[in-house]
Amino acid sequence: MSDALEPIRQKIDALDHDLVRLLNERLGLAAEIGKVKRSSGGSIYASEREDKVLRKVCGLNEGPIKDEALKAIYREIMSAAIALEKATKIVYLGPEATNTHAAAIKKFGASIDYEGMGTIADLFTAVEKGEADYAVIPIENSTEGSVREALDNFVESDLKIVAQIYLEISHSLISNESLEGITKVYSKDQALAQCRHWLQRHLPHAQLIDASSTARAVEIAANEPGAAAVAGELAAQHHDVPVIAANIQDKSDNTTRFFVLGKKPAGAVGSGRDMSSFLISLGDQASSHSGALLKMLMPMAERGINLSKIESRPSKRRPWDYYFFVDVSGHYQDANMQEALSELSAFCPMVKWLGSYPVVN
């Protein structure tokens, strides 16, 4: 068998030689692009360019490699390119090994510097002060809905959404105890809610305790007798605590959406398949004029702009005053979008653009 394998292995070795040479050649060109971007004040990370590259290479793919595997490889290549173009720091809702950390790595790869922070407000502040280049924040879960703290921070911040990430969330029960010995279960409130029915069936007498993060929950469970945590396997591996039961989330398609925030918006042209987010206030019209909300939506609808999300949040300035967070299809610079926004601005006291970013990750 060894004689039969040797010619094949020699071909693989030759291909590896070419791949390494070509990768370094590609990264050298990326470094040149970085010099141009720095001299012109442009952003190093361009989500619209990333999306186009991933779509292009998948279009070239004739197999047998799957598109998802090819995307993962190219994300690491682009991660190395970003690191060569400029030392880049990403902050995320920490500590290490949280789902937000996993989402950040999925988007930016292993070549970037990461730092976990305690609150979503801390993430906004770090980017606003220039202590980090980008922040990754959870924005909504397919089971439990929006992360309210994230929405509220957009009201006062000038940061822009430059990309989005979708991450399938798989929760595990993690503990040094057997199932029978568990009396307390720690986790983030949303994670506990996403596993509510499983916990009621298998641990009906256990106390459910909110923790600052899923990773922190595992850290507590590692040192407290009778304690368990609900978290991802990454956190279990990081803290070296056994997984007692895997995939305990109540919904098999449990997915969380994350935003990447930066000081500057993504490209003015867009990827061709974009989404835009806005913060809109109707002011006194919301309570004093019938049909005010419908009037707010009509400028978009009349121009064929699809609304994919609308959510109200109290302004906290006076009772019964609300902001509306809206996601729509299209890019901010599209002609029909600009027409709609112009019409909206005529009767809405605030129409704040939060960012435009590619639909597909």
TrEMBL record:
Site residues, Essential for prephenate dehydratase activity: T256
Residue stretches making up the ACT domain: 281-358
Pathway the protein contributes to: Metabolic intermediate biosynthesis; prephenate biosynthesis; prephenate from chorismate: step 1/1; Amino-acid biosynthesis; L-phenylalanine biosynthesis; phenylpyruvate from prephenate: step 1/1
GO molecular function: chorismate mutase activity; prephenate dehydratase activity
Prephenate dehydratase domain segment(s): 89-263
Cell compartments where the protein resides: Cytoplasm
Keyword annotations: Amino-acid biosynthesis, Aromatic amino acid biosynthesis, Cytoplasm, Isomerase, Lyase, Multifunctional enzyme, Phenylalanine biosynthesis
EC number: 4.2.1.51, 5.4.99.5
Keyword Cytoplasm: yes
A single BP term in Gene Ontology: chorismate metabolic process
InterPro entries: ACT-like_dom_sf, ACT_dom, Chor_mutase/pphenate_deHydtase, Chorismate_II_sf, CM_dom_sf, CM_II_prokaryot, G/b/e-P-prot_chorismate_mutase, Preph_deHydtase
Residue stretches making up the Chorismate mutase domain: 1-89
Catalytic activities: prephenate + H(+) = 3-phenylpyruvate + CO2 + H2O; chorismate = prephenate
A GO cellular component annotation in the UniProt record: cytoplasm
Functional description taken from the UniProt entry: Catalyzes the Claisen rearrangement of chorismate to prephenate and the decarboxylation/dehydration of prephenate to phenylpyruvate.
The protein's name in its UniProt record: Bifunctional chorismate mutase/prephenate dehydratase
Species annotation: Synoicihabitans lomoniglobus
